[in-house]
Amino acid sequence: MPDLTASLLLAATDIREMAYAPYSNFKVGAALRAQDGTIFTGVNVENVAYPEGTCAEAGAIAAMIAAGQTKISEVLVIADSPLPVSPCGGCRQKLAEFSDGDVKVTMTTTEGNSQTMTMSELLPGVFTQAHLDNT
Ligand code: THU
């Protein structure tokens, strides 16, 4: 694993412990590197009204935006799952707002089962600003 990805893995592994997931018991940690090199992290935050819960990726994006960064260079997501944890559809669109198609997303488990895909592979046919151009 490249050093830059390894630093995302460390950050996401640490922050995952802080997830608030009393309903699913599925703690997720996300780390993303912004264009200036800063790493931002997030965790899933569930709610007793289940649909109000938010994903780890959304938390990391919110932290990046609050810090004044708007371009994602790389993403990593980790959970204690039998399979590399895959960003949900909504999170793929959220990540795409701030990522080019060649941005790498590493999906991994706490056991080290890991898979890396690009944003274009994760969300082919992404809805973009170009679709709004006639409005
Ligand atoms: N979850 C994330 O935070 N990120 C993902 O990529 C997949 C799913 C959360 C949402 C919910 O709190 C829990 O995992 C189970 O779906």
Structure explained in plain terms:
- The chain has 135 residues and is of the alpha+beta class.
- It is built from 4 helices and 5 strands.
- A 5-stranded mixed β-sheet has the order 2-1-3-4-5.
- Strand 1 (28-34) and strand 2 form a beta hairpin.
- Residues 21, 24, 26, 28, 44, 46, 53, 55-57, 77, 85, 87-88, 91 line the site of tetrahydrodeoxyuridine.
Average pLDDT works out at: 97
Count the DSSP helices: 4
Structural class given helices, strands, pairing? alpha+beta
Shape, please?
globular
Summarize the structure.
The protein is an alpha+beta fold and 135 residues long.
Notable characteristics:
27% helix, globular, 135 residues, binds tetrahydrodeoxyuridine, 27% strand, alpha+beta, 5-stranded mixed sheet
Secondary-structure blueprint of this entry?
Blueprint: H1 3-16, E1 28-34, E2 39-43, H2 56-66, E3 72-79, H3 89-96, E4 99-109, E5 114-118, H4 119-122
Parallel strand pairs: 3-4
Antiparallel strand pairs: 1-2, 1-3, 4-5
